[in-house]
């Protein structure tokens, strides 16, 4: 005569603590629960079933299973620290009886389901390091999370979070790069970052940020930086600005913010001919895409002998009384 069944998994010594609960149809004699729905927090748990009578009959007494399942207790005293100079985080916890091993993560404080790093640690351990290079989080606050993992017939503990947190600075936004050719400099700008102690600025090759053409630093209050063109050491191509906010010893540096735009450095032309004929110097070179003109210079023993602008890819320059020696031609787009 049952209208249905109330099926629950409760703590054995305190049935008011309900880890799982559902109502099933009257023609059902078994049911499954997904472990992802588990709400227990450690201890011994039993199943209890109540036959529900609907509007026409009283519910039955509770029937409790003879068998039980164990959930591991959450690790206690979880600690979390940043060792910036050593390049790692250190996480510690108290041992949990019955644990087969531990899952140790760094999670966002405002959303522990977002994990920036995870490692598995043996049951005999109560501390571990996670390398900064293995941390994949964006800007924000992070805590350590430790879960004791059980054997096949034992339920993993709830995750225990550290009381302390580590902050990663937000990525600088609105990064721009501008070529101020009249002023013979390159200008970089970015938005402020709360908590930044300084900024590290680079001009990097687009698509290959390992190629760095210029570097600089900015103070905490700075939102711009300039470098003379003479300090730009690129090898041709597109270059973007990269700005990283740096924190103190207890704060993680930000990811690099990169400018959407770029500046172009012309490729270096290849000098293909340099000949002398009586009082005439002939030089030729390869064409460079987007070049509007070229400048050819001739030097001897480090001293410039002549300089000649050109709109094309060759020059013929009349000279007189060249001294014998070794001459070097150079062309710039």
Summarize the entry for a quick read.
The protein is mostly beta strands and 333 residues long. It is elongated, with a radius of gyration of 35 Å. The chain has no helices and 29 strands.
How would you describe what is shown here?
Helices cover 0% and strands 53% of the residues. The chain is an all-beta fold and 333 residues long. It is elongated, with a radius of gyration of 35 Å.
Mean model confidence by pLDDT = 95
Largest sheet: 6 strands, mixed
**What is the tally of beta strands?**
29
Uncertain residue segments: none
Taking all Cα atoms into account, the compactness measure Rg is 35 Å
Q: Please tally the helical runs, counting DSSP H or I stretches of 4 or more residues.
A: 0
- Tell me roughly what share of residues is in helical segments: under 10%
Q: Termini distance?
A: 94 Å
Structural class: mainly beta
The ordered string of helix (H) and strand (E) elements is: EEEEEEEEEEEEEEEEEEEEEEEEEEEEE
The fraction of residues in strands falls at: over 45%
Shape: elongated
């Amino acid at each position: 005569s049952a209208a249905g069944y109330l099926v629950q998994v409760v703590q054995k010594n305190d049935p008011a603590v309900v880890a799982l609960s559902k109502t099933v149809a009257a023609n059902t004699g078994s049911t499954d629960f997904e472990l992802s729905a588990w709400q227990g927090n450690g201890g011994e748990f039993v199943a209890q079933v109540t036959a529900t009578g609907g509007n026409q009959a009283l519910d039955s007494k509770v029937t409790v299973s003879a068998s039980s399942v164990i959930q591991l207790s959450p690790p206690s005293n979880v600690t979390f620290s940043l060792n910036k100079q050593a390049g790692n985080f250190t996480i510690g916890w108290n041992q949990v009886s019955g644990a087969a091993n531990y899952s140790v993560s760094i999670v966002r404080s405002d959303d522990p389901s977002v994990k920036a790093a995870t490692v598995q640690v043996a049951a005999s351990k109560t501390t571990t390091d996670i390398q900064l290079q293995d941390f994949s989080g964006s800007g924000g606050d992070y805590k350590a999370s430790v879960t004791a993992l059980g054997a096949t017939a034992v339920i993993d503990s709830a995750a225990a979070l550290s009381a302390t947190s580590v902050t990663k600075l937000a990525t600088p936004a609105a990064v721009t790069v501008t070529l101020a050719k009249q002023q013979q400099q390159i200008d970089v700008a970015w938005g402020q970052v709360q908590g930044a102690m300084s900024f590290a600025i680079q001009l990097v090759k687009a698509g290959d940020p390992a190629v760095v053409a210029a570097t600089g630093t900015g103070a905490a209050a700075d939102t711009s930086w300039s470098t003379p063109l003479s300090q730009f050491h690129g090898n041709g191509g597109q270059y973007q600005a990269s700005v990283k906010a740096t924190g103190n010893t207890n704060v993680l540096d930000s990811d690099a913010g990169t400018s959407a735009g770029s500046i172009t450095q012309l490729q270096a032309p290849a000098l293909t001919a340099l000949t002398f004929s009586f009082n005439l110097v002939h030089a030729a070179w390869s064409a460079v895409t987007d070049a509007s003109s070229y400048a050819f210079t001739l030097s001897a023993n480090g001293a410039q002998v002549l300089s000649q602008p050109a709109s094309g890819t060759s020059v013929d320059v009349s000279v007189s009384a060249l001294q014998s020696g070794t001459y070097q031609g150079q062309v710039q787009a």
